[in-house]
Amino acid sequence: MAMKPGIPKGTRDFSPVEMAKRNYIFDTIRGVYALYGFQQIDTPAMENLSTLMGKYGEEGDKLLFKILNSGNFLSGVDTADLNEANTPRLAARLCEKGLRYDLTVPFARYVVQHREELTMPFKRYQIQPVWRADRPQKGRYREFYQCDADVVGSDSLLNEVELMQIVDTVFDKFGVRVSIKLNNRKILTGIAEMIGAADKIVDLTVAIDKLDKIGLDKVNAELLACGIAPEALARLQPIICLSGTNREKLATMKKVLAGSEVGLKGIEECEFVLDTLAGLGLKNEMELDLTLARGLNYYTGCIFEVKALDVEIGSITGGGRYDNLTGIFGMPGVSGVGISFGADRIFDVLNQLNLYPQETVTGTELLFVNFGSAEAAYCLPLMAQARRAGVRCEIYPDNAKMKKQMSYANAKAIPFVAIVGENEMKEGKITLKNMVTGEQSLLTVAEMVNIIKK
Amino acid sequence: MAMKPGIPKGTRDFSPVEMAKRNYIFDTIRGVYALYGFQQIDTPAMENLSTLMGKYGEEGDKLLFKILNSGNFLSGVDTADLNEANTPRLAARLCEKGLRYDLTVPFARYVVQHREELTMPFKRYQIQPVWRADRPQKGRYREFYQCDADVVGSDSLLNEVELMQIVDTVFDKFGVRVSIKLNNRKILTGIAEMIGAADKIVDLTVAIDKLDKIGLDKVNAELLACGIAPEALARLQPIICLSGTNREKLATMKKVLAGSEVGLKGIEECEFVLDTLAGLGLKNEMELDLTLARGLNYYTGCIFEVKALDVEIGSITGGGRYDNLTGIFGMPGVSGVGISFGADRIFDVLNQLNLYPQETVTGTELLFVNFGSAEAAYCLPLMAQARRAGVRCEIYPDNAKMKKQMSYANAKAIPFVAIVGENEMKEGKITLKNMVTGEQSLLTVAEMVNIIKK
């Protein structure tokens, strides 16, 4: 036999069980997005490189998968380019399309391209694969799914509130306990004003994050070493040692940032979101967390991040508010707020905690054993009846040995097997075997359906 | 403003309404596949070119989208190749990956790669986009979805029967009346034996197809012109004029093909499939159709094709039995049978016949008008309650003019609007406006949910 064929590194096949799990995740997220009035769109896998290039930094440009022009791809290439071996310039001649790198840039492109048809505020979600020519490693793939929802064209904080409700509902449906962390870019800007430098905000959040591990003295020493002035450091102490309930934290912050208009605005925004959510009976904790500093160049208001409480895996969902989605395409003033569920990590979390509902992972619920053509002919109408009642069933297509048919049922983890031989045909019934308990009973189709669907 | 960004030719964005329709189609097909014990798999968008090349003929190779190698893509290229400008050879050096062209070759690759994990018979379905660098035209795209189901590892005709039941159930769920046409490669082989040349089978089926339009004499003249011998033509007359019920057609064919073992085998197979289906209460007609000659190089047994009865659009689903799925990857003996729903054409058929259920196209069911922060705060818990009851609802995020909020509801085709002002807050109720009838009533949340979900 020839060498086994393989797939490109960093890509994956999804087996039936993996797909059932992935479908469960996507269907759950889709359902919740829809409950909040978000509508799904889809954009093509290929975008023009002019849409993608320059949007993800120089590093990102290198990670784009580029598609060789069809036909005579050399037609636009001159020999000088070839001989110079300037790969970026040559790539631009050889390729005009690339695979999408994320869902944000295609969404921005979509909003600009279709702006006349869109009703603002526009609430869209999108669940599609993206491709990155990253070095593959554990948990990092070259093809993976993103599940983004955004509202654009509205500054209202009710949007932030809804997104937090969505996060809470989704993880509640999954049965995963999470902590939903909230911060605000404006609070960080306020703090930056205090310490005299925006670029020290990252050092500060990193240092605060270490407080539990290394203690206050070492944190302060680190901050001084980063170049934060002693007076600023003194004023920072309540922020570094910030603790208590969200309400207590906000009260402290208000005092510390009393001199910063933008800082106070950030606090007010968080306060509104937290107060509003407090009345809505979330199942998970919201936590104000100043160490949250994701997407600093992009986000301009609230920032969120979700961590699983019972699995060590990092952030499994995140998002925030941005001021300018479509400026890159020459359409200014489109602000919005979005979240993105990390499907691959959620997949791992549900696996580790064994939280997939049995129903969603079970494919076929009922296998009819095939004892020959007469028996099969008798079974087919019964199967049609069971299917009309929603039972997922199949008949083993060949009259193989019983043992082989039973191993098929076991391999597919089919929970019930129907045995129909001469006796059953005479009585007009079915012997149903529960593959877990081994129990067998002689039943009508209706009785059988009731047991399976119970 | 800068030039509007666009997307590569032959690709499409799917708007919310289009996506809702597409989801309805896919979810329906998924649901039916699952009822018959088929399980979904997913394969990566990118395959190694070694997997794809040479599988679709020379023309197909040209239509593959190839992906430029990452990093220094010139490293494997020597200047001789460049100067020669041999594009196929150069492409092979520049690219080792391509986008999948169909779902069959990736499925064959999957079966070979995972053969140790698979339980045969393996019933899989796959709903994914494929890419072809075809010249785009009306109804032909460079990115489109295929929805394939196959059973491999079983020769039983029960598989054919099940696939026909699936086709019947899917179109019944869609409310589309179809004709399911059945033929068999072996019957065609038998006929070819009769007329002395396998390559004349296509001429024959084309000619038979014209019988209604041009009449018997002209059909016969055409066949003689194709080089069919007069004696053969005489024996062919009952086939050309074949009519009546499936049973009558089979009886005629049995006589005509009495001398061909393979031909009789094909008739027997069709007879089994048709007889078995006759007892299963299909909603649509099955028709034995000798003009069906799709995939002659690939299919070896039953061939099917589905045509919509109320829309002129060509085949909307097709498939058949093949003997050798995985031989191209050095694993012989894997026979199977499959079908493929033509999602794009089904989309058009449902559009033309206006058959999308309102429920599936409706996004948000209920919009809460925003009269300000106090009213919004009052609405949010009511909305949480409505959502728990499955009502898809949203609040207009900004306190905009009533007119603007109502046009938003209209633009999104939201069927109900909830109006909550001072009065409603005092009474603990909601004024629900039916956007179609204009009717308004003062209701509790529970009453409102009942009306919306009715």
Q: What can you tell me about this protein's structure?
A:
The structure is a homodimer of 454-residue chains. The first copy, chain A, has 454 residues and is of the alpha+beta class. Helices cover 44% and strands 19% of the residues of chain A. The first copy, chain A, has 19 helices and 16 strands. In chain A, the strands form three sheets. Chain A has an eight-stranded mixed beta sheet with strand order 1-5-6-11-10-9-7-8. In chain A, helix 7 (158-174) packs across helix 13 (261-278), helix 8 runs antiparallel to helix 13 and helix 9 (201-209) runs antiparallel to helix 10 (211-225). The first copy, chain A, is globular and about 95 Å long. The mean pLDDT of chain A is 93.
